[in-house]
Write a structure and sequence with these properties.
mainly alpha, 2 helices
Length: 89
């Protein structure tokens, strides 16, 4: 366990990684089976889940990607959190 991270934060990162892996595998499958509607539904489900989980993580601990970085704020929080090599991930 990273001493700078809470168990909740580590669990959230792990779960985002698992769901992201499933979505990536489905994308690779769809590259060779583009007409498989069931696979497309499965992919869409896991992408929605990953986006939701990533947004929840960003709300609690800061953005993991620029797509969930809050640009409505007056400060750039992306640069205020520790970088991965500083124990941020």
């Amino acid at each position: 366990m990273n001493p700078k991270m809470s168990t909740e934060q580590e669990n959230m990162l792990h779960n985002i990684g698992v769901v992201g892996f499933v979505a990536l595998e489905m994308a690779l499958y769809l590259d060779t089976h583009p007409t498989d509607r069931e696979a497309m539904e499965y992919f869409n489900h896991y992408m929605r889940l990953k986006n939701q989980m990533t947004q929840e993580y960003a709300n609690k601990f800061g953005p993991l990607t620029l797509s969930v970085a809050d640009n409505s704020s007056k400060e750039w929080k992306w640069a205020l959190q520790p970088m991965p090599w500083e124990g941020g991930c």
